[in-house]
Design goal:
This protein is an alpha+beta fold. The protein is about 25% helix and about 20% strand. It contains 3 helices and 6 strands; from the N terminus they run βαββββαβα. It has a 3-stranded mixed sheet with strand order 4-1-5. The chain has a 3-stranded antiparallel sheet with strand order 3-2-6. The radius of gyration is 14 Å and the shape is globular. It starts with a strand and ends with a helix.
């Protein structure tokens, strides 16, 4: 997940630290990458991590092209114990 450094500092999140994202639809454990590419009030997860993104938002596809819909939703960022985060992240993935 890309997160603004100012937002990360306010939340106590460090670069390359695992965090838990929670939305109304689900949750995901992701690694934080601090970058100025996103505004302070936004996080970004690339679409190619679709299993993660679809757990947080709607997994809608265009009925003709099967292209994923743009996804946006409110998330809460929570700290997660780093010793268990990697295990949780791997367990949540579908291979």
């Amino acid at each position: 997940m890309e997160i603004n450094p100012d937002a990360a500092q306010a939340l106590g999140v460090e670069h390359m630290q695992y965090v838990r994202l929670v939305s109304r639809r689900g949750d995901a454990v992701v690694m934080a990458q601090l970058t100025h590419r996103v505004p302070r009030n936004m996080v970004f997860i690339p679409f190619h991590f679709h299993d993660c993104v679809n757990r947080l938002s709607l997994g809608l596809l265009d009925p003709y092209s099967r292209q994923p819909a743009f996804k946006q939703c409110a998330v809460r960022i929570e700290p997660v114990a780093q010793t268990t985060a990697g295990r949780l992240n791997a367990a949540m993935r579908r291979f």
